[in-house]
Amino acid sequence: MDLALSVLYTKIYKKDGPGWTRVIMKIEKEGFQNKKGFFWNSLGSLMYGANSFLMLALVSRVGTVEQAGYFGIAFTTAQILYIVGLFGVPHYQMTDYAGKYKFLDYVHAVRFSCLLMVFGCIGTILGFHFTGSKASYTVCLTILMLLNVVGELYQSLFFQKNRLDLSGSALFYRTLYPLLFFCIILWATHRVIAALFIQILANLFLTIYYALRVAPQFIPEKTEYQVSGQAKKLLGECFPLFVSLFLMNIVMNASKYGIELMMDDLAQGYYNMIFMPAQVINLCSQFLFKPLLRRYAELLSERQNRTFWILLLRQILLIAVLTCICCAGAYSLGTPLLSLLYQKDISALRIHLALVVLGGGIFAVCQLYYYVFVILRRQKRIMAIYLCIAAIAVPMTAVCVHSIGLMGAVLAFVIIHLILALCYAVDLYAVLRRGSCA
Q1: Mean pLDDT of the chain
Q2: Rounded CA separation 118/348 (Å)
């Protein structure tokens, strides 16, 4: 406890007695809890951000460039199906601080969305004519993502109950240990399917642990076996959010599917190698603003728009600085380091890599705007924005990839997300100017 707080503690205690002691102790405890939560959230986000990067890196290192292409498009497909499994429910749950819906409403909603996820996997494999290793990787990675959907349900519960430390640590451990098993098995056997199978088992064990041993203390006893019958209503509220998230991932990965349809697996492999740092930038940047979501909600509910804008602009500036540093590093050192990591020569893709990292930073800003709109409960506005952007992204990506190949895919990725960020900023300004935030 610092000097100022010590003085305040002494004065209050002498004046008002032991009752205030409990108040001060509560303040101290909350301060410690916030620091602990920030630490674990940061660690969990970093671990999750590194997960896909390390998996692709190891597959690229032990296999061929084409095999990296198979794994990359399978992983991308599984991530999009992960969005189908989430259905926007955990994102709504995280910001449901008033407890509008019971936990079992979220459970039943996720059961339905996981079923959609399974059918989506089958449809994607048949629709894109995935065969052999590409189909096998897609199935295994989809199962892994399905377990992550279940895990996200409990992590969002911890977040909702203001236990960011538990939410972050659960994400960290549920990512770390399965990843270690994947890396060890793949390095020892060079068999991707075997490594994925062990990774799935490890994830299943940890998910069951958090569901049965940790989560029950946060679920009120009276609602543990009672369903409010509002799961359908919850899905209805989350539907615009789901469509937005689905389109967000389609927009983000449009370049990959453009390459899948118009180029070969060799090009897909190289593109996935340079694309992974962008995802790491985006995921790592989220630990900068996720701990402040509650603060954003408070400022908006109290209509403190000026303070809100100051906080938002500070966060955007922080992301911009991080992105600039990473772009400089990617241009000067990125390709030699990635070539060493992947054991493949990507020296000709230096400019491509720097631009992809820039696009990842812009996407991170878009994510920040997205969470603000979720807090405002403006899911339909998010959906409208992404419908417009998706309508632009598909033809733009097709033209760019067809015209200039890999560089076209990279430029489409950057330009599309720049347009998206500008649309978000203009629309948010319009919403707050009209004073329509509830």
Answers
A1: 85
A2: 39
